[in-house]
Design brief:
By secondary structure, the chain is mainly beta. It has 3 helices and 12 strands.
């Protein structure tokens, strides 16, 4: 089971506009593959990784046995990147490149799919593609059982499914390594409104509707485990 509840804290959003910088308050990517550094998952972060004190500093991960980089891979294609805390069993952040919508005129619907996990967090020799969550518990990551029958918390996306370019992108976001326990009222209320607000900015103010987004989760200090 995951070990702490979190506050969603999106970190930064960058648009591909030469003279425009968007500064956002408290908001900030499936072939899945575990690698050694954020730089090994190219195309999802603009220039350099964000600073996360005590975890990710100057592009270097502190405590590599605990914090793992996942090149989120679905159908043999990398979709986004996640820095994952295997001790607390929640993502630290997910980074992705927003590219608009493949079929922008169609009605947007949440894909019907099962929740997935990252097999290489359990066994590095396994397939690099994310797979269906089929166990009650995992050693290094959350399982679907951690959320079932929980009246207070549900799965909160870091990389929102609504930001995916096509159906496969959207489906790839449904991995538990991209989800944190969120209070239901917050996830379905304020957080959803913020997702829609940021998406509106990306759609209307970013060149070619393209932008880099990093979304992080801030752990509750009262429940956070030490390294």
């Amino acid at each position: 089971m995951f070990h702490n509840c979190v506050m969603m804290t999106p970190l930064n959003t960058w648009c591909l506009l030469p003279l425009t910088v968007l500064l956002l308050l408290s908001i900030s990517p499936t072939e899945t593959e575990v690698v050694q550094s954020m730089s090994q998952c190219e195309g999802f972060i603009l220039n350099k990784p964000p600073q996360v004190p005590g975890i990710l500093e100057n592009g270097q991960i502190k405590g590599k046995n605990r914090y793992r980089v996942i090149c989120q891979t679905y159908e043999n294609k990398r979709r986004f990147v996640t820095l994952y805390d295997t001790k607390n069993k929640i993502p630290v952040l997910s980074a992705y490149k927003y590219r608009g919508q493949e079929n922008s005129e169609e009605r947007e619907e949440r894909p019907k799919t099962h929740w997935k996990i990252e097999p290489q967090l359990e066994d590095r020799s396994t397939d690099k593609n994310m797979k269906k969550c089929d166990q009650a518990q995992y050693k290094n990551q959350a399982s679907d059982n951690d959320y079932k029958n929980n009246k207070d918390y549900n799965r909160g996306h870091l990389f929102p499914s609504s930001y995916g370019f096509d159906e496969s992108d959207k489906i790839s976001t449904f991995t538990l390594t991209n989800a944190v326990p969120q209070e239901r009222s917050f996830n379905n209320g304020s957080w959803r409104k913020m997702e829609n607000y940021i998406k509106c900015i990306l759609e209307n103010y970013c060149k070619n509707k393209e932008g880099y987004v990093v979304t992080g989760a801030k752990a509750n200090p009262e429940t956070q485990q030490e390294s």
